Amino acid sequence: MLLAIDVGNTRIKGAVFESNTLLGHFVFLKKDFKKNIENILKEFPKVAHLVVASVGDLEKNDFSSFNERVKIHFISHENHFPFTNLYETPKTLGIDRMVLASGAVLRFPKQHRLIIDAGTCITYDFVDQEDNYLGGAISPGLRLRYEALHNFTAKLPLLELGSPKNIIGNSTSESIHSGVVNGAVNEIDGFINDYKQYYSKFTIILTGGDAVFLAKRLKNTIFANSNFLLESLSHLFQYKIKND
Ligand SMILES: Nc1ncnc2c1ncn2[C@@H]1O[C@H](COP(=O)(O)OP(=O)(O)O)[C@@H](O)[C@H]1O
Ligand SMILES: CC(C)(COP(=O)(O)O)[C@@H](O)C(=O)NCCC(=O)O
Ligand SMILES: [K+]
């Protein structure tokens, strides 16, 4: 049994898997991550492996206290991945993006894939049908957009994520919601349409904390899978134990 942990820049997500079947799902913050992981390990005594992908500020050493209880697999650039990395700066590519690309290759073989992860940042990753990882884009996520508008202006309030009533915002709040939400929706639809000019057919995977909220609003029909990164960690683990 496996506990997969995804350390993002906003939250930590965890899931317990038995042969790629998800048995439990958890979300917590960095400040109480040790207690949370201990509780999960108590709840699932059969967990023997801990696999971690971190782009947040938790390092391999932060997990060493679990060493006696489970075998720790901290994903790094040195691991084997099931794709050819054509990024010009492979060492600076986010581990989360490498895990997403791996999941896309392992679960959707022999096709072009675009993975969109709407978390702290919105990341776009393209892996072609020959399993070449080409790169993509990084833009601010929804929460980050609300915070940036507030933090870098004198007059804009900090709003919680909300649905814009209209494309034309008729108040400060409505203008902000339209700018953030309609802006991100148009960005994602725009990227997808741009990619279609280069690749006529590709599989789109939408994941991350804002995936469900965004999927409903896109012109392109895409099903959100909020657990894709955790599921990819489980698939990569199966691949890794066979290949490392
Ligand atoms: N309870 C929550 N706390 C923080 N963000 C949340 C929460 N629920 C949904 N979100 C949304 O999730 C996004 C962050 O997604 P997430 O996948 O957790 O990010 P990361 O993987 O970068 O930590 C934010 O833009 C925010 O709108
Ligand atoms: C772009 C990211 C900050 C996204 O992080 P997230 O939104 O998942 O928390 C992360 O993938 C990262 O730190 N990347 C390094 C730069 C790169 O991928 O080129
Ligand atoms: K992301």
TrEMBL record:
Transmembrane segments: none annotated. Substrate binds at residues 87, 94-97, 172. Its EC number is 2.7.1.33. ATP binds at residues 6-13, 120. A monovalent cation. Ammonium or potassium. Its cofactor is NH4(+); K(+). Keywords: ATP-binding, Coenzyme A biosynthesis, Cytoplasm, Kinase, Metal-binding, Nucleotide-binding, Potassium, Transferase. The keyword ATP-binding applies. Homodimer. Catalyzes the phosphorylation of pantothenate (Pan), the first step in CoA biosynthesis. This is Type III pantothenate kinase.
